[in-house]
Amino acid sequence: MNTPRLAPSAAELAPGVAVKRDHLLRILRDLGGAAVAFSGGVDSAVVAAAAQMALGDRAVAVTADSPSVPRSELTDARRLAELIGIRHVVVPTHEFDNPDYQKNDGARCYHCKSELYTRIETLLPDLGVPVMCSGANLDDQGDYRPGLVAAAEHLVRHPLQEAGFTKADVRAVARAWGLPAWDKPASPCLSSRLAPGLAVTPERTERVERAEAHLRSLGLRECRVRYHEGDLARIEVPLAEVARFATDPVRGDVARVLKQLGFKYVSLDLDGFRSGSLNDLVSLEIKTRYSLAGAGGPTG
To answer: Which fold has domain 190-274?
Structure first.
């Protein structure tokens, strides 16, 4: 059995998590081969590492490359795949050519994942593996996740869910395996920063990428620049940082840089950082149409 090329960790797993880890490895081994949709985040990193352990050369990590993927994330994914020792393929995806994706009506993630899974499906014969896998865990089932509907339609397996992994379990295993992504904050695609109804364009996602890079240069690990109609940037930072970002010199610096990037208005959200806050603007109709219940639930 192959193991990741990682430094050993002193972290120990609780007995219940160790049972889930072993179950995960069995699930992947029984697949006989798998292409893992690999973003470089902690969830897909654990699935990729487990697939490499269980399947060796019959495991491959597939990473999408499009204007919605920050360049830094693509670089990190390449480095992490090399560290794990898994075969790695980067594929261009063309969701930005799809008018249904561009209009950003709340179902954008469905169209994005449909494009990704379609691309991976066409590669499966050349990759020599029979199944696609995602990094979805049990905690993902409680949120609005149209991408899971696309996964169900493409028969994508969710090994972490099948093995009973919560997000906390994923981080525990990642730490025990020495994966550097074990404590990495979630990093959804850049298009997720655009408010529903605001058309998705490469220019806007690049503007968000550069704005968030500036915020991180000021010492933040978690932050969002939400892009609203009228070229308004709504900045979300952790509550403990709100006062600093509302006070000069940071306030003036951030306003100046974001306006140089093309934002006309720069606001600071006093409620602080909230993952998925733009989901509140998605209509009930769209949420119902792209719910797992409406799609019949994930397969496999």
So the answer is: Alpha-Beta Plaits (3.30.70)
